[in-house]
Automatic annotation (TrEMBL), chain A:
InterPro entries: DUF1214, DUF1214_C_sf, UCP009471
Domain DUF1214: 71-168
Stored Gene3D superfamilies: Domain of unknown function DUF1214, C-terminal domain (2.60.120.600)
Name listed for the protein in its UniProt record: DUF1214 domain-containing protein
SUPFAM superfamilies: VPA0735-like
From TrEMBL, chain B:
Alphabetical UniProt keywords: Membrane, Transmembrane, Transmembrane helix
Lineage, highest ranks first: Bacteria, Pseudomonadati, Pseudomonadota, Alphaproteobacteria, Hyphomicrobiales
Identification of the protein by name: DUF1254 domain-containing protein
Organism whose genome encodes this protein: Bosea minatitlanensis
Residues spanning the membrane: 30-55
Organism domain of life: Bacteria
Amino acid sequence: MRILDLAYILGLGAGLGLVSAHWAVAGRPAVGKVEVGSWMAWPGSGSRGVDPYMRAYLARGVHLPLGAGEGVELIAERSDDGAHLDGRCRYRLSGNVPTTRGWTLGVTDGAGRPFALPLDRASFSDAEIVRGEDGALSIVAAAAPQSGNWLPLPAAGRFQFRLRLYDTPVSSQTGETRAANLPRIARLDCR
Amino acid sequence: MSAIDHDAAPLPAPAQRRWPQRLRAAGMRLVLTTLAGLMLAAIVHIVTILLIPVLSQRDAAHAYRELGAEGHAEIVPLARGSGALPALQEADPDVITAVCAYDLAAGPVRVLARTGTLPLGLTLHRQGGGVIYAITDRAAIRGVLEFLVLTEGQYDERVANDEEGETSRELRVVSDTQRGLIVARVLAKRPSDRGDAEALAGGVRCGPAD
């Protein structure tokens, strides 16, 4: 009976420990996440004191995160109404982008890879968009062509918006940024 | 104490009265072993998380450890299947990334980057995770970004060799690991900027300091 007990303890400990560790770092860990509106960021990932979960996540693939003074990457998986971003819907990104030397806004899958779409336009940079008279941002993301700044989406399925800000004062204090300083993601309609 | 008293000692309980006791004992043992298992699981979880960066052979530090042997940073691919090197994950497609691996066993490494009109960032990634240092081209002096990467020991040696009373002008960055990566990133804002961005990123020099 003692051997059975020991086997149970070892099996439970090793199994649960390994499975929970794998689960915790299979995607971006919840530890160290900062949420501003619909956007998420992990500002600690580019610092000297990166937390053990982020460190483990980054070591599981070929990752080179942006340094804390170099820039910050913001990821959105949901629109402002809380629904998951889906290629069957149309979205409008509007508002402001914090002060930067340059930014890019891209559409990627859950692993951060751009989609292979017929039109070779996976992202916009700050130099590429057409702005209104007030200088504000307005980008429409949809699977079908749109007038103005159009960011093509996959025909269906989930995707992410990735906003990368380069050389910005926001990078070290992402958590203190107000949602109003980042683009809003409004869902217009769905097929 | 008489023989009669002794005979009156309680008889062993009937089998059906022992079952609840047995069940309770078995339940207690299950709870205790489960608790012990959970504690072991917590220890295994923590040790696994801490060991992944140490044991990983698929991280950027291993994938790009051969880059930069020719004295300048080399551009890494962003998409799979474009060369022998593994692709950089979660990379910005509008950014050109060039990498130079360093090994401080042979002495300090000098990094020299010329800046242009496109935003350039230099970062130092140590082996095992963590960005030791980040600098952008706004800190450049007369169009040049230059710094020295050294270990704690090499830093002390250099400070000791400095001229007495004179302040050294060189920027010294201490790396707490012997190996790591110097990463240069240049943002190509327009597709037509890619050529310039590749020249800027690939032109970052990294070699022995002396």
